[in-house]
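=== RUN LOG ===
request id: a7f3
mode: sequence -> structure
chains: 1
length: 211
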Amino acid sequence: MDNTYNSSLEDAWDHIRFHFTHYDGLLSKVVRGEEIDNKQIAIVEKSLERLQLAWQDETLIPKRDVQFLWNNISFSTLANSMFLYPQKAREIRHLVLNLSRWMYRLFSLPTEEKAIATIRHHLINGAPSFVAQIHRGKIDQGAVLELTAAIDELENRWKGRVLIPKTVISSFFSAKDITWRVTGVYSEEEIQELENIEKILSDRIAKCLEV
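=== RESULT ===
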């Protein structure tokens, strides 16, 4: 385990802000098609692990921190770099998949809540999710309406809050990578429909996270 992981939470946030927003940071370099620095990737991973350590037993986390991450990570923009720089497509895809996994892990539930959620999903909530339906080749507009209504409800309840439930945040970030994960499966017209849905959900979530 390296010094980045053992460093302070403040240092971890400094690394995250630099690599997510600075011109010389990791994400900007990927978008420009520059060489991907494995040392920078390791720093980002360990910094997110440090943040995960701070949040791992928390059910409420700072809304402002979530908003920063939401506003500065665009899986679709990063994935688009695979097409702009095909010679780097493999390593960019690997990075995007890892980043998606790290973000999911960052917002994972405390152990007890996760166990309860897993039991409820398998024993009570038997219907396939909106994303599961997409991977089965079906775009469920009814599910989109339910999702937007639920996000709007959270927006109303979260107004003025400093801390928000961690439970739902990993699901929010799943809305950022709906389209690129199924590229090549749907027709161009259907991809456009999915991109519109992704934008609707992303705009609603961004409004929900306003501070």
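=== NOTES ===
Residues 60-76+109-208 form one domain.
The longest strand covers residues 60-62.
=== END ===
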